[in-house]
Amino acid sequence: MHNLDTINGLLRAPQALETRRDKLKEAIDNFLMANLDPSNSPNLLHEAPDDIMPLFEVFGTEVFRRSDLLVPMLKVAKVLMRKQANRALIQDAHVLSLIPVLSSPKNVMAAREAANVVLNMCYDSQNVSTFVQNGGARALLPLTQSADIHLQGSALGALQSVSYQKEGRSALRDIGAVAAVCSLLASEHHKVVARAVGAVHNLSADAQSLRLIREAGGLGGLVPLLRSHEAEVCALAAGALQNLSREQASRAALAAAAGGSGG
Predict the structure, then answer these.
(1) Is residue 139 within 8 Å of residue 99, measured between CB atoms?
(2) Are 238 and 205 in contact (CB under 8 A)?
(3) At what angle do helices 125-133 and 92-103 cross, to 10 degrees?
(4) Which pTM value belongs to this model?
(5) What CATH number does the domain located at 182-262 have?
(6) Which of its termini does the chain have fewer beta carbons within 10 Å around, N or C?
(7) Residue 100 and residue 65 in contact, taking contact as beta carbons nearer than 8 Å
(8) Residue 176 has what pLDDT?
(9) Which CATH architecture has domain 1-175?
(10) Is the fold of 1-175 the same as that of 182-262?
């Protein structure tokens, strides 16, 4: 964990960006190189919690949000949030510090990496609550319609993580996320489709969202995915359709579609 200790020590130094920038960048690069692959990440394999406070505290400062080190620092946060012991340390202020990065991102890469942090961070239900109660979902939603496919995928992954929790599903339903996510089921890009169908599957667990999914064309987007060569995509589509069949109108639409396709 030496590189993280070095990063933290440098971040605590007065005017770190002006006086320690090169050393900070080197320490960040070394940490990211060592932890690139989650399957053999030293940080993830070391189960004890890390000192995450210095990193998340700087996200709340304007000077760091404008820095060219913002993106690599977000990547460090993404790595740290893979670990449950670290997610449990997150405070409300740390969640809130990410929302401006999403709503007014420095660039596409900053928005993408902030969404990746949210994806991992929101495996913890308390972090989901703080995120959605303070406008995080509203900041995230427009990113799903980005012209940048990688940003679309990251934003959808964050929505999928948020929608795993009941409070997240309700918040996404209330801001109109259902239609936005359903529109991406027909994307030409595999990662976008995989994460969109995962989010729709989660949203379909919310009874009040079933009609919204149907009205947004979700049935027509899900049925073709049953023929996907990707087992996970196929299974998520089947699960979403099973949930949708609890609604009478969706059941009737599915029956009509099945009858119309018969030979």
Answers:
(1) yes
(2) no
(3) 50
(4) 0.92
(5) 1.25.10
(6) C
(7) yes
(8) 95
(9) Alpha Horseshoe (1.25)
(10) yes
